[in-house]
Amino acid sequence: MNDHHESSQQGGESSGEKLGSEGLGVEVIEEEVVGGALIRKKGIYLLPNLFTTASLFSAFYAIVAGINGDFDKAAVAIFISMILDGLDGRVARLTNTQSKFGEQYDSLADMVAFGVAPALVAFSLNLNSLGNLGWIGTFILVVGAALRLARFNAQIGEVDSRFFVGLPSPAAAGVVAGLIWIYHIHSLADSTFAALLMLFVVAGVGVLMVSNIRYYSFKDLDLKRRVPFTAILVMVLILSVVAYDPATVLLVSFLIYALSGPFQALVRKGKGEK
User: Fold this and answer.
1) What's this model's pTM, rounded to 2 decimal places?
2) Cα(6)–Cα(114) distance, rounded to whole angstroms?
3) Strands of 43-182, DSSP E
4) What distance in Å separates the CA atoms of residue 9 and residue 98, rounded to the nearest whole number?
5) How many C-alpha atoms does 172 have within 13 Å on its Cβ side?
6) Whole-number Å distance between alpha carbons of 253 and 265
7) Which residues of 38-60 are buried (b: 16+ CB within 10 A; e: fewer)?
8) Could you tell me which residues come within 8 angstroms of residue 65 by beta carbon, excluding any fewer than 6 positions away?
9) Residue 34 and residue 32: Cα distance in Å, rounded?
10) Least confident of 9-18, 49-58, 257-266
């Protein structure tokens, strides 16, 4: 689960963005030190930012679909946004088109895709029935995503890359989107219990995002090395299971990952480890 706002394209506010030659601020100029010399680069890279834009569009579509009551489409759009978000950083690295602008744009898109979109769709589904309690719980998810992204940007290069500190925002969005999808398929959203469960999940993943609980990042997996032939059969089996019941499989998968952090923390505490 690649937390790509947590990808190579993220970062804090760039000091390299300058005004254009006419002082109108219509162009992006980034400064980069190459061989001890300060180089200024004008413009942006199109390819990786197209993926980021597509991710942002999918998140915006999810919000609109949720407002219109198309909750299954909204949930699918959030998952699509997650896939696109995982691609932009990889495309940037493969094509050597990383940039500070891309980092900023990606973080802002992630805030919408994994904070605002799942929160508003959940609110439109049934959290609005809880009054003030509903929108407060929704806000916990939004602010949790914002703080999670800001902390990640500030800690780049200072933490163990094998782990994320706090639940990655795409995983948090995956839990919420999966539950929304299940509710819609089985028509479970109308009861007070269902609304309270959604509130608990939404607020819970919001808190987990800003916690100090460590989550495995999967960044040390070497996908380039040779594997046994049976590995491809396992991948086919996994894809078949996902295709059979995507809503349930995705919800269970992201929920297990979200709970793995607290579980491992309790295990380490029981062993007296930090």
Assistant:
1) 0.83
2) 12
3) 163-165
4) 7
5) 41
6) 19
7) eeebeebbeebbebbebbbbbbb
8) 71, 73, 74, 77, 121
9) 6
10) 9-18
Q: Which domains does the chain have, with CATH numbers?
A: 29-270 (1.20.120.1760)
| pLDDT, averaged across the chain | 85
Query: 243: number of CA atoms within 13 Å, CB side?
Result: 6
User: What are 165's strand-pairing partners?
Assistant: 214
Three-state secondary structure call for residue 32: strand
Query: Considering only CA atoms, which of 100, 113, 112, 13 is closest in space to residue 48?
Result: 100
Contact, 167 vs 258, CB < 8 A? Answer: yes
Q: What are phi and psi of 248, to 5 degrees?
A: -65, -45
Find all residues with CB under 8 Å of 198, minimum gap 6, and list them. 122, 125, 126, 127, 179, 180, 183, 189
Residue 218, number of CB atoms within 10 A of its CB: 13
* Contact between 34 and 77 (Cβ < 8 Å): no
